[in-house]
Amino acid sequence: MATRGQRPKPAALRLLNGNAGKRPVNTQEPDTGPADTSPPEWLSQAATPHWARLAPMLATAGVLKQSDRDLLATYCETFAAYLEAVKAGGASMSMVGQLRQLMGELGMTPSARARITADKAPEVERGKARFFAV
Prior knowledge:
Radius of gyration: 20 Å
Oligomer: single chain
Distance between the termini: 52 Å
Shape: elongated
Order of helices and strands: HHHHH
Largest sheet: none
């Protein structure tokens, strides 16, 4: 049976967006480290230019992790297939839906990026001033 409710956000996103619900944050979430930005060997020739354009950008933004490489490769393959379908005059709405879903997962849409905000860390006061804060 499927789970109900919203999908849980990764801990990094919860910390960036604030924890409005005051639910406990998973501090033991696995970190797979930064991604290798070279394309997977199995990526098709049509999808490789999309990978070359997106992987460095997403890795620099800190969005692409090692465990997300297959997700990005799936997006690149789907986008390449979509472009071929457009050229042939037969792009389907299901392909557009798949692309939109993958783009949201990778933070590649304006609304997905708008949900990610980084607040400046509060400055720690030194000395006696910390006792007289207003």
